[in-house]
Every structure is written in C-alpha cells, then in structure tokens.
Amino acid sequence: MTDDHDLHVEMIDDEITISLPGSHYSVTYFKPEHQTGLLARIISERYDPLAAMGVQEFLAQAWKVANDKARELGWIV
C-alpha cells in the first residue's frame, strides 16, 4: 500500500490538486461558497497500469490528503 505522503499536493488559487507522481492520476478539489466540505472538480479516472495503486485507492487517499490540507488552510473544520 502506498503512503499518503507519496501523493503530491499543489495549491493553485482556491483549488487543491492531488496527484500521484509517475502516474496519470490526479484530482482537483475546491470548496464551494456556503458549503461545509470539498467537491472534486477535475478527476482523472483513466486506469494507469504502471501506477503504484489503483484509481479507487488513489481517490480515497487523495480525498484524505485534500481534506487534511483544507483543514490546515482553515477552509473546513
């Protein structure tokens, strides 16, 4: 199993993009105004046979990492 720390986190304006280096996997999250949580805007779901994990595992870990970053930024509690 790949560690959350293997995921790359990038902030661009008001979006959090999580990617898995060496793969095609990435997902971008944002916090809509008047909402209490994050929503995914751009999801790369293309299967990557060379990735260290499957797309479902990536998305689960990316969600956790994005929420941790959003808490750190004060976007969510």
Give a written overview of the molecule.
The structure is a single chain. The chain has one helix at about 55-75; strands spanning about 10, 15-20, 25-30, 40-45. The protein has about 80 residues and is an alpha+beta fold. The protein has one domain (about 5-75). Strands 1-2-3-4 form a four-stranded antiparallel sheet, covered by helices on one side. A hairpin with a 2-residue loop joins strand 1 (about 10) and strand 2. It is elongated. The termini are far apart. The relative contact order is 0.24. The model has no long low-confidence stretch (mean pLDDT about 90).
Mean pLDDT: 91
How many structurally independent domains? 1
Helix content: 10-25%
Strand content: 25-35%
First-to-last CA distance = 28 Å
SS element count, helices: 1
| Rg, Cα atoms, Å | 12 Å
The biggest sheet, with number of strands, parallel, antiparallel or mixed sense and barrel status, is: 4 strands, antiparallel
List the uncertain runs.
Answer: none
Q: Name the strands of the widest sheet in spatial order.
A: 1-2-3-4
Structural shape: elongated
Spell the H/E element sequence.
EEEEH
Structural class call reads: alpha+beta
